[in-house]
Specification:
Layout: H1 2-6, H2 14-30, H3 34-52, H4 66-77, H5 82-113
Helix pairs in contact: 2-3, 3-5, 4-5
Length: 114
């Protein structure tokens, strides 16, 4: 269902992804229950994995929460519960792939502007 929102009109947008992450991230951070954290990490991971299928996303430069997301996921990688730490690690993997896409996108903009 969340994937359908990101894929709206078959043109995924980083703005939509960021909006969804801004809703899910507080659920992850504020919950102390393992099953809630696991579900939130699963949702984040699935959204990021879906986004990785589209290396040319619209509004890529407007994705401004990468640092907050990276820090939060990094902390959850240190969780003693293996399910939580593995979920955070998977989400972090997909976030890094997206950051590479963003970097390549910005490099290509720099070459076309010159």
């Amino acid at each position: 269902m969340l994937q359908a929102l990101v894929l709206e009109r078959l043109e995924p947008s980083m703005v939509t992804l960021q909006s969804l992450l801004e809703i899910i991230l507080p659920c992850l951070v504020q919950s102390e229950k393992v099953h809630e954290q696991s579900r939130a990490l699963g949702a984040i991971s699935r959204l990021l994995r879906l986004t990785c299928n589209f290396p040319e996303l619209s509004h890529m430069a407007e994705f401004s929460m990468s640092g907050q997301l990276m820090g939060t996921l990094g902390l959850f990688c240190m969780n003693p519960n293996q399910e939580i730490s593995m979920g955070a690690l998977e989400a972090l993997h997909y976030l890094f792939k997206i950051l590479v896409f963003i970097e390549r996108f910005q490099e290509s903009l720099g070459r076309t502007a010159s």
